[in-house]
Amino acid sequence: MTKRILCFGDSNTWGFSPADGQRMDHRWTRLLNTAGTLDAELLEEGLNSRNAVCRDHHMPEKCGYDAWKMMLLSHKPLDAVVLMLGTNDLKSTYHCSARYIANGLREYVREWMNPTLYEGTKQPQLLVVSPILLGDNLADLEGEGGGFNRYSMEQSRLLWEELQAALAPYPVTLLNAADFAEASSLDGLHMDEENHARLAAAIGSTLQEMLADSPENPDHDA
């Protein structure tokens, strides 16, 4: 049976092009099936400027946690979920520490563990991906009044370590996107097609291992 995988993230899941701001066809979510032997039904839930935990009062819909439970419910049955958020919480307007962001992502995991979400189906496996690092040139590109500053860049480099600590007690798989991909020098924030391909290969390989011994979905509710 074809596996169903939900990909939940921000603009680097949506496929925002650092060159022209358009949506790239060759984004990592669409490359997962060509990066290996995954052969899955991929459910894309990327949203530009989506935060993990912070709330923008001008655009409250950008807080991913508000949509998280609904996505798990509306897309079931699922075999796996890929969660990649945290970049936008690093914006200077929020002044968040890496630890605060990681602890916020821990709340996603706790909600994912809620058994009432999966009545009639199995609980999907969860892959939490720590996002790529902010580019070294981002603060300069943004300028003094920009959305990211030096503190943002410092916390970006601490996020992977903090995420590992925050999620250590939980039965999830972790992946550090920065080990495989990086932001384009054009905007210091988004991946180009080459880096989307690299990340797709890493995520695809990890998902294959996670799902290798996964049982098929039982009968489920309508």
Oligomer designation: single chain
Category by helix and strand content: alpha/beta
Low-confidence stretches: 217-222
Largest sheet: 5 strands, parallel
Helix content: 25-40%
Tell me how many strands there are. 5
Query: N-to-C terminal Cα separation, in Å?
Result: 18 Å
Strand order of the largest sheet: 2-1-3-4-5
How would you state the average pLDDT, rounded? Answer: 93
Gross morphology: globular
Question: Could you state the order of secondary-structure elements as H and E?
Answer: EHHEHEHEHHHEH
Description:
- This protein is of the alpha/beta class and 222 residues long.
- The chain is 33% helix and 13% strand.
- It contains eight helices and five strands, in the order E-H-H-E-H-E-H-E-H-H-H-E-H.
- It has a five-stranded parallel sheet, sandwiched between helices.
- Helix 3 runs parallel beside helix 4 and helix 4 runs parallel beside helix 7.
- The longest helix is centred in the last third of the chain and has 19 residues.
- 41% of the residues are buried.
- The C terminus is likely disordered.
Describe the secondary structure blueprint for this structure.
Blueprint: E1 3-9, H1 11-14, H2 28-31, E2 40-46, H3 64-74, E3 80-84, H4 98-112, E4 125-130, H5 138-142, H6 150-156, H7 159-167, E5 173-176, H8 193-211
Parallel strand pairs: 1-2, 1-3, 3-4, 4-5
Helix pairs in contact: 3-4, 4-7
Protein traits:
222 residues; alpha/beta; five-stranded parallel beta sheet; 8 helices; 13% strand
